[in-house]
Amino acid sequence: IDGLGARGETEFGCLAFLGSGVASTWKYNWMHDSQNDFIDLSTSDIVAAFNLFDTMGYAVGAHADSIQFAGGGTANNISIKFNTYVQRVATNAGPSSFIDLETQIDAGAKMNNPEVAYNTASNTAAGGAVGSTFYRVAQVVGVINNAYVHDNYADSTNMLGVIYDTPSPGQDIT
User: Fold this and answer.
1) Rounded CA separation 42/23 (Å)
2) Are the CB atoms for 57 and 88 separated by under 8 Å?
3) Which residues are registered as beta bridge partners of 144?
């Protein structure tokens, strides 16, 4: 899936936006050169496995994430495993995160037992904006129950951090 990168005539907010209650499966894709995010979805079920997320943040002011949750709903099957993220070209905005496991925007959003495992991430783009965090599990609204983030690899070059975790109100992230 080609986001057209710097040569794109249209600036996409994301390559794919999935609304409330849409469950999706993403396997064996090469998503590359995105203006901003690759996949945005409400708090809903997703299986993402064996994908290559390759360079994002071409749009000026982008806050690019490969997979970002934003919106209401309840997710009982979040499985993000065996994916690879590379930032190989310096873009206008550095990557925000590879996987952004949050219940943003909606205080009623709920994630139950999400798993993020066996993924690999690197930002080798020389001279670009420094990225934020590869793996983020955090929020100040909503609930994340028993997030299981394990056996991931990240090269912290050109990033501020590798993992950021903050419990949701009243919940522990394990």
Assistant:
1) 10
2) no
3) 111
